[in-house]
Amino acid sequence: MFGIGELALILIVLVLVLGAKKLPELARAAGKSARILKSEAKAMKEEGKKDSAHDPGAGRAVGGTQGESHVITGRVVEREDPPARS
């Protein structure tokens, strides 16, 4: 991955390009994005558990490796109007 030297160089370039005043703002935005992503992933995981508990036959196992299986669940939604072509 990256060593300390490369990370320091990237940080220096960021400070020069963006300025020291913008970095805390960018860090906050990145933190918010990470929290949102984490909460959405958790919600999707809980929703999947809830759906599989109510409808155990909803998913179909797809072959995995070494005894692992991946369950794919969902539903097909038909569009009412065809997409516009440009």
Give a verbal description of the structure.
55% of the residues lie in helices and 9% in strands. It is built from two helices and two strands; from the N terminus they run ααββ. The protein has a two-stranded antiparallel sheet. The two termini are 43 Å apart. The relative contact order is 0.06.
Could you write a compact summary of the structure shown?
The protein is mainly alpha-helical. The protein has two helices and two strands, in the order ααββ. Strand 1 (60-63) and strand 2 (69-72) form a beta hairpin.
Number of helices: 2
**Cα-atom radius of gyration:** 22 Å
- Indicate the proportion of strand residues: 5-15%
Secondary structure class reads mainly alpha
Strand order of the largest sheet: 1-2
Q: Note poorly predicted spans.
A: 58-64
| Total number of beta strands | 2
Q: Which range best describes the helical content: under 10%, 10-25%, 25-40%, 40-55%, 55-70% or over 70%?
A: 40-55%
Features:
86 residues; mainly alpha; two-stranded antiparallel ribbon
